[in-house]
Amino acid sequence: MKVLLVNGSPHEKGCTYTALKEVESSLNKNGIETEIFWIGNKPVSGCIGCGNCLKTGKCFIKDKVNEFLEKVPNTDGFIFGTPVHFAASSGMLSSFMDRVFYGRRNLFSNKPACGIASCRRGGATATLDEINKYFGISNMPIVSSQYWNMVHGTNPEEVKKDEEGMQTMRTLGNNMAWLLKSIEAGEKAGIEKPKNETIISTNFIR
Questions:
Q1: What integer best gives the mean pLDDT of the chain?
Q2: Which end of the chain has the least Cβ crowding within 10 Å, N or C?
Q3: Could you tell me if 121 and 84 are in contact, meaning their C-beta atoms sit under 8 angstroms apart?
Q4: Which pLDDT value is given to residue 206?
Q5: How far is CA 145 from the centre of its chain?
Q6: % pLDDT > 90, the chain
Q7: How many other β-carbons are positioned within 10 Å of the β-carbon of residue 62?
Q8: Cβ atoms of residues 175 and 143 within 8 Å
Q9: Collapsing DSSP states into helix, strand and coil, what is residue 132?
Q10: DSSP helix/strand/coil, 51
Q11: CA distances (Å), 133 to each of 77, 141, 206, in order?
Q12: Helix axes of 64-71 and 91-101: crossing angle, nearest 10 degrees
């Protein structure tokens, strides 16, 4: 089993990375393979709604989105981490997730996921709410912890001193591992994943 931890910060080894590493440590202790995927510090374009990816499976924009999507079929769970910018995720992560999840419900369906937020002081719960919406619309179980998935600090050293935040990250890793193992055990016992109905898409224009 493998979990991809996405670092949506422009700083490769900053506060968000520090939180993700704490989650990773718990996952590894539970025998879960991990990879931290940094989206980088170069501009990430938002989705332009061209629909090309629905035909080819790939985005025509050349950045790390396609590299990430190649890893998804062999990944069992996902954690998306971001710094808090104006009570929201980083613009880079938001654009990244828009393009990653567009038209790809079947690729992510039934795979557990969660978000984590790193902030100086406030805005973390609004950020988590934003990230979790991608999972809710993609038929993905959302993993929780003992508190909202956030850490506080202005640099990695301060984040490490946030004892409750670090504990929350460790608990999150344990919960993700438990859920993945439970799903695996259920499949071995013959419990099939839900067979979803064909999506009914409606609007309210008459």
A1: 96
A2: C
A3: no
A4: 67
A5: 14
A6: 89
A7: 8
A8: yes
A9: helix
A10: coil
A11: 16, 11, 28
A12: 50
d(C-alpha 96, C-alpha 14), whole Å: 19
Q: How far apart are CA 141 and CA 113, in angstroms?
A: 6
CB 63 within 8 A of CB 44: yes
Whole-number Å distance between alpha carbons of 57 and 178: 31
Distance CA 111, CA 193 (A): 10
Task: Report the pLDDT averaged over residues 9-19.
Answer: 98
pLDDT digits (tens, 9 = 90+) for 73-130: 999 999 999 999 999 999 999 999 999 999 899 999 999 999 999 999 999 999 999 9
The alpha-carbon radius of gyration of the chain (Å, integer) is 17
Between the CA of residue 105 and those of 54, 62, 80, 138, 198, what are the distances in Å?
12, 22, 17, 5, 12
Q: Residue with structure tokens 């061209």? A: 50
Q: How far apart are the first and last CA of the chain?
A: 48
Contact call for residues 61 and 96 (beta carbons, < 8 A): no
Contact in structure between 92 and 10 (CB atoms under 8 Å): yes
Do 46 and 17 touch, CB atoms closer than 8 A? no
**CB of 1 closer than 8 Å to CB of 33:** yes
Q: Does residue 158 carry a pLDDT above 80?
A: yes
Angle, alpha carbons 13-90-92 (nearest 5°):
90
Looking at residue 142, what DSSP letter applies?
B
d(Cα 167, Cα 58) in Å, to the nearest integer? 38
Can you read off the two tokens belonging to residue 108? 């992510």
